[in-house]
Amino acid sequence: MTDRRHIKEIEQVLGGTQTGRDSFVSASWRRCVELYGMDPSRNDPAHIVTDAELRDHRKQAEWMIGAARSSLQSLFRQVAGQNYVLLLTDAKGVCVDFFGDDLFVNDLRGAGLYLGSNWSEDLAGTCGVGACIVTQEPVTIHQDDHFGNAHVSLSCTAAPIFDSLGGLAAVLDISLLRSPTPKRSQNLAMSLVTNAARRVEMANLMAEGRRDWVLRLSDSPEFLDVDPEAAVRLDGSGRVLGYTRAARRLFTDGGTIIGRRIDEVLNLTVDDLPDLMRDRPTEDRIVTMRDGGALFGHAIAPQAPRTALRSSRQGGPLSGLAGDDPAMEQVLARAAKLARTSVPLLISGETGTGKTKLARAIHMVGTASGFLSLDCAGLSPDTLQETCDTVNGPTTLLLRRIEDLPGDAAAALAAILDGRDCLRPLSTTCVAPGALGLSRPLFHRLAGATLSLPPLRQRQDLGTLMDRLLRRRAPDDMRLSPSARAALLGRQWPGNLRELEQVLDVAIALCEGRVIDQSDLPAPVDAMIQATEAGESLEQVMEACGWNMSCAARRLGVNRSTVLRRLRKAGLQPPH
Ligand SMILES: Nc1ncnc2c1ncn2[C@@H]1O[C@H](COP(=O)(O)OP(=O)(O)OP(=O)(O)O)[C@@H](O)[C@H]1O
């Protein structure tokens, strides 16, 4: 487009005519004339700050340059040989870092695509960086989208980078000196630059967050651990300390995000974060949102000493494991004191009492930064050795179900523990410690102290645990009817907390409305086993239940319509 046509189009846009330009371009042209008093016919050269000013800008942006470096390098490798230039500018538009082909340095410098150039809109007119700073959104300013004639050969695609408090910190720009005419030729550049900006925000949040929980979130399980979409940094009570831009989508009301509690928007509290750590399969780390959506979560535990989480009474992972139960209080108080030592711990209790969960919480409160988890059943000495060879610094070694450890692996374990002081074993077992049958040397290397978890039927905090699990696993306002609650409180729970979780999951799935009733509860495992063992016929069950469908359904562990169907099939009818 000639200079004259470009100027004419700007005049038309100012006069209110739609010329087919993107609206954010027209808005920027208007600002250039009406706000900054610019003249499109002037051929202003690039604005370059002085060396002293550049030093100041770079110094202020030092942390961002550090966080962005590796993302910029990898982005530059991706576009190598295609004549793209990468600019990192600060929030004022001054280029503080630069990657370009040395062959074109003079051309790039002349066009202002270089260190120290100032691309703020009030100086450079409509341009990628300037428009991005004003709109705080990714933009492509392609060729004659630029306001001044000096820049109309450029194509610039820019994405904002936000600091963890939500303020604009920098702009990442990818530019071409000469590009194909269609604007859509830059769609790929847009996707590259927005992804790179997201990674820079993530790197920055991770670098800040070593003393806090970080919860990373992704729509798809494949990318969760390698390239998550969003992240929040949380304090010990689950309040947001920092976030990446993409995490704004969680807080849809548009208010301030810092200081908000994560359980306002997600069905989890900070006590649930250990369940989202990397030792769990990705598919199991589903986080449901209060609005009904679901995401995959990856929780990263604090790495540095966490003074705020030291005792179970002060909040944190240990206190979240129990409500008001005297036996659990004693176990957790003991665990809190032992957690920060390097004493090997043996945690015993029936299946599903929460031994693994307690071990993770102890790791969280302790000082070791590394965490390894192994199931002992079928563990080979080679796998054990290979896993322990990855250790680099103080590490917790969680050994699940130590009673199942094969003999040859037991010998290897004793040797490994002898050779590596940095490994702290936390073992779990369903067998009483005295009956474990481990060799004496290995026993002493594993059980410096023991912790014994009570079965759920003996705990006095069953009601609190039910409420917490329901809040975590069910939609917002789902609750238990008084009779369902009483029925659950009266059960024996041979499968302990695991069984409780499963019973609630079934009830939530079967419940039609918002109130879980007795008929939504699966039959107690014991009753099912007894019914099968006693070989009760359908008729006997019906008689025992006074022909009450709901009662029979519960006793058989099926729903009412199944009972009805079976009755019809068996030709049974209630006695008149
Ligand atoms: N205090 C708790 N509050 C809520 N849920 C819990 C609690 N403790 C454990 N759970 C849940 O119960 C289930 C079983 O817990 P965990 O795996 O820790 O038990 P375990 O004693 O190690 O079981 P096993 O001996 O069978 O391996 C898990 O899904 C866990 O999230």
TrEMBL record:
Top-level taxonomic group: Bacteria
Domain Sigma-54 factor interaction, by residue range, is 321-509
What does the UniProt keyword field contain? Answer: ATP-binding, DNA-binding, Nucleotide-binding, Transcription, Transcription regulation, Two-component regulatory system
How is this protein named in the record? Sigma-54-dependent Fis family transcriptional regulator
